[in-house]
Each structure stands twice: as structure tokens, then as C-alpha cells.
Amino acid sequence: MLTIDRRRKILQFINENKIATITELADKFNVHEATIRRDLSLLEDRGQLQRTHGGVVKNDEVSSEPPFNIRQTAQVEEKRRIGEFTEKLIKDGDNIILDSGTTTASIVGVILKKRNITTITNDLNIATQLNSAAQNKVIVTGGNLYPDSHMLNGRITDETFKEFYANIAFIGTPAFHYEKGLLHFDDYLVSAKKEMIKAAKKVIVVADHTKIGKDALYRVAEIKEIDALITTREITGEQEENLERLNIDVFIV
Description:
By secondary structure, the chain is an alpha/beta fold. The strands form four sheets. Strands 6-5-4-9-12-14-15 form a seven-stranded parallel β-sheet, with helices on both faces. It has a three-stranded antiparallel β-sheet with strand order 1-3-2. A three-stranded antiparallel β-sheet has the order 10-11-13, covered by helices on one side. It has helices at residues 3-17, 22-29, 33-45, 68-71, 76-85, 108-113, 124-130, 155-161, 190-198, 237-244; strands at residues 19-21, 49-52, 55-58, 95-98, 118-121, 137-140, 144-146, 151-153, 166-172, 175-177, 181-184, 200-206, 218-221, 228-231, 249-252.
């Protein structure tokens, strides 16, 4: 089994069983305990689980995110599938709000194939990539720059989004809760996302399986404010059942 597959299956096992010991995981995946410890250390660094003495527990509370360079290399295949799926939702001539993030960045390739798209974004990295297509228009919000993540945020960003009304807003998130909705651990980043949601006719959340069922301190949007969720088939059966109960479109890719 490839390392990336083993780590994905470890997460699935923890999501389903809530708790596990290192010995139990080593036996299940037929590897040394030292290998499991390395896997768990990496997954904990990404905020995907919580280490305990001799084992690990499911981590449902999001209080931070890994650095951008780590997030950029996490769940790459899942984010690629999410991006590709959006081709079914984006039409030539659409006006699109694209939230900052590594998952929303996966949508860039689809937009570049379309014509007469106007994209409003608070992500300099996304804007730079989109600028390569002369047939489309890119609007950058301005705001305070987060150098490590290429993100713009703050009052200027919030005020800029108030000037638009787009067809679709694609919103990223560190936490999607079945009852509480779209959540975030950083109150400073919440207001821009709220304005994006207000500025769009249709709101689509894009989130790989590690964000589903997670909790965080600050509410960005209630479930009723969201039209659709695109997530990945790595979610557990329990997570899929919880999503099916929601009164929104759920696409599992």
C-alpha cells in the first residue's frame, strides 16, 4: 500500500471509530509502529487528528490550519477532482467570486477553458494564474496581504465585495458542520467570506473530506445560506448520511 493511501485509510478508520491505539493501527495496516507514529505526526501537523498517549483520537475541532505550503500539497488528488467537477457548473459569460485557498485554486483550470468569464478574487496567486487568459476578466479586491498564503483580507476586501453581485461564489472552508454550517477558526477571515456569500446568486462550498463534520468557533454561514457542497468520495458512510439529510445539493466526486 502506498504511503498516501495508508494515511487516507488511517483517517477513515479514525473517523469511523473515533479512537485507536498505535498498536492497533500497526496491526491493521501491517507496518511497524514507528511508521504509524510518523503517519500520525504528519496528520496531526495538518490538523486532521489529535495524538494521545499511545494512540490517537478524532479531531473535530478546528483551531488552526497548517502553513500554506503544507496545505498546497495536501489532498491534491481530491482538490483536482473538485476543480474538474466545477466545469459542469460554470458557463461561458458567468461572473464568479473565487475565495482564497488551495481548494478554490483547483477551479482555475476550468475557468481558463471558458470564455467571457469575470472572476473576482481576494487571492493574488489565483489572480495571477487567471491573468493568462485574455478572453476573461480578473478583478482583485485589494486589502491587507497575507504573504504566506497570497490572500487579501480586511476592511478594504470586505467593502470591495459589497460592490458586486455574481452568478456563483465558490467558498473554501476549514470546517463544514452538519448543523452549524460553514465555520472558521479565525474571526478576522470571517467577514470577507460573509460578503462573498451576500454578493452571489448561488453559493457553492468546496471542501475535501477532511473538512466535513468539523467544528470551529466562528460561524460564516448557516446551511440555509448555502446552495451546494462539493466534497470527495473519501468521506465515510456516516458523513455521507449526515450530508444527505441537509437541504442542499451535495456532489461527491
